[in-house]
Specification:
The complex is a heterotrimer of chains A (377), B (105) and C (462). By secondary structure, chain A is an alpha/beta fold. Chain A has ten helices and 22 strands. In chain A, strands 6, 7, 8, 15, 16, 17, 18, 19 and 20 form a nine-stranded mixed sheet that branches. In chain A, strands 10-3-2-14-22-21 form a six-stranded mixed sheet. The chains are: A alpha/beta (377), B mainly beta (105), C alpha/beta (462).
């Protein structure tokens, strides 16, 4: 490799957001380099539940989720593959009146802001839709037209599309350092240097480290969020189910296996990029699952795992221009970034190419975190 | 099926697909079924292929049967009990409560 | 069951029984978990309840297990049977379900994993038909229930194949044939280990006698079999085999396959213990020191689970692992450790040449580890063929984890026990890389399926 190479844009991070950015930039005719320290999709992108939802999103994310869902419905146009995307209703059940009123209040907040996708359903409607849900559930909220996709198939499709568009993609290549030289970013890797006017930090749970190299302070924590998958079960559920007041996500795939997740954490080792499971927390996740779906009591967990998610203090992503010109942040999706991946790269590409757009991304600015005087490292 | 000469033990009666089977105390369900000439224990969820026991030690998961209404039990890891009702495992595990099995005279 | 023990031993075969007894002798509090209802592991299966009238059928080597069981019963070891261990962590936490009823999370100051061996997968066309079993399954049926399968054809290579066929002869069972897949070239390679193996002359003589008896018995005994296909429509109906350039056929409803045993690595790998590829035994060996300590502090691996060593070797290594654990826990001092360990190390090293001889002579041929016929099922649980796997590799799957995500191979209930070695070998073969570089698929708890209600009950109730 030559000592110094130029490109139009260099991206740090080969997860779905980095790949999405690469694809949109390449489609706009830019020469793109993507640097991934492990393998593409190795972390959060390859280990998540594959949910594509508008349900339950923080208000500022909703327009992004709506735009993303439009892309998911025609995802073949973007990446030449269906990515296993399927429409499926997303439902959040309420276990008592208090939970139901919380959902109703939120529904009102959304309607006031012009969003009508979340629909409250009563006990009868809930039990008609979900005949196996626990009898004590009193109602819930449903979003029709949400869906889910296959994370592995999605990563594979985005990866292949990026390569086919001529993206210069390097795996096993961590970014060592980043500096400004005149109007350009200089990105140092073990084998040399890249120089480009645009540098995009899509480094996921490691995004805080890259941001610091760029002179921006972004607090972010790597968390090992655990997932469990069961043996194949006879079909009993369509749709993706969560519960108000509990961290639970629950869905049954076409092959009959049921994926159970939530916000239950294992331990994470950021330097080796590995996770260990916490059995007590996994037990709590199982408890939530059988509380909502009692028929699952005798079903068996076949495997459990945990990916590394980058979680910000307010659980909102960091999207937008960095402190210094030509730099951009696109990370910190806090365990709900999968759905936004087709659109996240488009937002950054629009900013770089100056394409007319009306993305409201102020809520995601890196500047929202109070600055600290940088320590020596 | 032939058994070598052994010190005697008690007889255990159980049912497989409604058929009465005579086994010996200490037999695993898998051993008792094989001894009675039943080699097909399950139909796979993926392709509906017939499968029977392979390893007899809990490693292969091919000997799955339904025992007293609970599916996906490894027949080689469970000992026979009087009155036990065993059914072939038909595809994926059915989490819904089992319908009562028909009594056979 | 207590919440905590000094030493927890997992597996009640020769290694586990030996380790637990010795540890308890030195006043450690010891629990011994085993998933079977009674002691013995596989090699000494049902030793405490054996009812065979004629002890000559199972043979003297089997009944040696009684001594181990007796010693254990006389000790202070808490033996918990029907206990399925699904989790061991680097912090010495153990997840175990007892009697299929209640799950527990307990801890120990030191854990000895003695989960033994399983038979190597033998993927040939038709190997999934009912009626096709491992030769070890036939031995378990004989030991536990006295059952002789009708007219089986024995297929494969390795001492266990000949032992069990010989046990059938002794028991008066009828054998339809023995198809020996040992490559002719193996004998040339193994012969050079023979002189050093002279110390185990009795074992050599015993093996030779089995083979002689089998050849003289009049059953079809075919050597240097290069290829096999099991045929049938829904069940096994016969086996076709290629030897000396031509295909022949034997009618049978029972085929017993065997090409050696390999360590049962799932629990140790999920606990994070480092393993390395062994090119002679063609399997993963745990990285352990001379006292069984693995790469994870506080976790030891003893017996066939670390690398195939046979029943006697497992007994010795179990004792050594207990000595290692006792030393680490300061239950015995360094001098006692050396005094106890030295004679055991000597005994074990004397066994090594014979082991090398066996490993070389009975190393399975490549065509039986890497299915030639693309229609052969590799992942039995998820029904993924050799052709599916080769296609996935050509589409860019460069490792077992990617291959698992792409094809589902390894995602079934057996958790890659029956396909993992084949998958790693096929990737190595297609990509022209050493298996050590390809690696094994990532294994995690629970290593046995775990009921959600049992897992949930580990929490405080809501």
């Amino acid at each position: 490799m030559a000592h110094s190479k130029t490109a139009d844009a260099v991206i740090a991070g080969g997860g779905l957001h980095g790949l999405s950015t690469a694809i949109h930039l390449a489609n706009a005719g830019l020469r793109v380099v993507l640097l991934e320290k492990d393998r593409v999709g190795r972390h959060a992108s390859g280990a998540n539940a594959g949910g594509v939802r508008r349900l339950g999103r923080a208000l500022p994310e909703i327009p992004l989720a709506v735009a993303a869902l439009d892309l998911w419905k025609n995802i073949e146009d973007l990446v030449d593959s269906s990515c296993g995307f399927q429409k499926s209703a997303q439902i959040k059940v309420a276990e008592d009146q208090k939970g139901l009123s919380t959902l109703e209040k939120r529904g009102q907040t959304l309607r006031d802001a012009g969003f009508y996708h979340e629909e409250i359903i009563d006990a009868k409607a809930l039990h008609d839709l979900l005949p196996r849900v626990a009898k004590h559930c009193v109602g819930g909220v449903i979003v029709h037209g949400d869906g889910h996709a296959d994370p592995f198939a999605t990563v594979r499709a985005f990866h292949r599309k990026a390569l086919s568009l001529g993206v210069n993609l390097h795996e096993g290549t961590p970014v060592r350092d980043v500096t400004r030289v005149d109007e350009n970013w200089q990105i140092r890797i073990d084998q040399g240097l890249f120089t480009a006017p645009h540098f995009i930090n899509a480094a996921g749970a490691w995004g805080g480290q890259i941001a610091a190299m760029m002179g921006d302070h972004v607090p972010i924590e790597g968390q090992a969020l655990m997932l469990m998958i069961t043996e194949r079960l006879a079909p009993f559920l369509s749709g993706v189910v969560g519960a108000q007041g509990r961290a639970l996500s629950f869905k049954q795939f076409n092959n009959g296996t049921v994926l159970i997740g939530g916000a239950y954490q294992g331990q994470v080792n950021m330097s080796t990029g590995t996770t260990t499971l916490d059995m007590h927390q996994l037990a709590a996740n199982a408890q939530a699952a059988v509380a909502i779906f009692p028929l699952m009591r005798r079903a068996r967990v076949a495997r459990a795992w945990a990916g590394i998610e980058g979680i910000t203090p307010d659980s909102l992503p960091v999207i937008g221009p960095a402190g210094q010109g030509g730099g951009f942040h696109l990370f910190g999706f806090s365990a709900h970034g999968f759905a936004l991946s087709p659109i996240s790269g488009r937002i950054v590409a629009d900013l770089i190419c100056g394409t007319h757009n009306n993305w409201s991304i102020n809520a995601f600015s890196h500047a929202r975190f109070p600055n600290q005087i940088n320590a020596s490292i | 099926m032939l058994r070598i000469a052994r010190q005697p033990t008690s007889i255990v009666n159980f049912y497989f697909a409604g058929i009465l089977i005579e086994a010996q105390a200490g037999d695993s369900v898998a051993a008792a079924l094989l001894a009675a000439g039943h080699g097909v224990f399950r139909i796979t969820p993926v392709s509906g292929a017939a499968r029977g026991p392979v390893c007899m030690m809990g490693v292969c998961f091919d000997c799955l049967v339904q025992i007293d209404g609970l599916g996906n039990q490894q027949a080689c890891m469970r000992e026979v009990r009087d009155g036990m009702r065993v059914e072939p495992q038909d595809g994926a595990f059915d989490a819904l409560p089992a319908r009562p099995v028909e009594e056979t005279p | 069951m207590k919440d905590h023990y000094d030493i927890a031993v997992i597996g009640a075969g020769p290694a586990g029984m030996s380790a637990a007894s010795l540890a308890a002798d030195h006043r450690a509090s010891v629990v011994l978990f085993d998933e079977q209802p009674s002691l013995g592991g596989q090699i000494y299966r049902d030793i405490t309840r054996q009812r065979a009238a004629d002890t000559a059928i199972l043979g003297a080597q089997y009944y040696h297990g009684k001594i181990l069981a007796k010693r254990l019963a006389a000790s202070a070891v808490e033996h918990i049977s029907s206990a399925s261990v699904w989790h061991v962590s680097a912090e010495q936490e153990i997840g175990v379900t007892v009697d299929d009823e209640v799950a527990h999370l307990i801890t120990a100051d030191h854990i000895i994993i003695a989960t033994g061996a399983q038979e190597r997968p033998f993927p040939v066309p038709g190997w999934t038909f009912p009626g096709v079993m491992n030769v070890g399954a036939a031995q378990i049926l004989l030991k536990s229930s006295g059952i002789l399968l009708p007219n089986p054809v024995f297929v494969g290579t390795g001492p266990l194949l000949y032992l069990i066929a010989h046990q059938y002869l002794r028991a008066g069972g009828k054998i339809a044939g023995l198809l020996d897949t040992t490559p002719r070239s193996n004998l040339r390679a193994a012969v050079r280990h023979l002189p050093a193996a002279y110390g185990q002359a009795e074992q050599l003589w015993k093996g030779w006698r089995w083979l002689r008896d089998l050849r003289k018995s009049g059953i079809p005994f075919i050597r240097a079999v290069e290829d096999v296909r099991i045929i049938g429509t829904k069940l096994a109906e016969g086996i076709e085999y290629k030897a000396n350039g031509s295909w022949q056929h034997l009618a049978t409803e029972t085929v017993l396959l065997h090409q050696g045993v390999v360590p049962n690595v799932n629990l140790a790998m999920a606990a994070g213990c480092a393993h390395q590829w062994n090119d002679t035994q063609l399997c993963w060996h745990a990285e352990v020191d001379k006292l069984g300590h693995s790469s994870v502090e506080g976790v030891s691996i003893a017996g066939d689970g670390a690398g195939i060593t046979g029943a006697d070797g497992a007994e010795t290594l179990g004792a050594l692992a207990a000595i290692g654990a006792l030393t680490r826990l300061a239950k015995i001092d360094r001098n006692a450790c050396i005094k106890l360990a030295r004679p055991l190390h000597r005994i074990q090293s004397r066994r090594a040449p014979f082991r090398r001889f066996l490993d070389t002579l009975y190393q399975p041929a490549a065509q039986f580890r890497l299915p030639v016929d693309d229609t052969t099922l590799v992942c039995r649980c998820e029904e993924v063929t050799a052709g599916d796997i080769r296609a996935a590799i050509r589409l860019g799957c460069s490792g077992p984890n990617q291959l698992k995500s792409f094809t589902r191979a390894g995602m079934g209930p057996c958790q890659a026990r029956l396909c993992g070695l084949t998958v790693s070998a096929m990737i190595a073969d297609e990509l022209n890389q050493p298996v050590a570089q390809v690696g094994a698929g990532r294994l995690r708890a629970p290593v046995k399926p775990l009921e959600l209600a049992h897992l949930a009950a580990l929490c405080d109730p809501e």
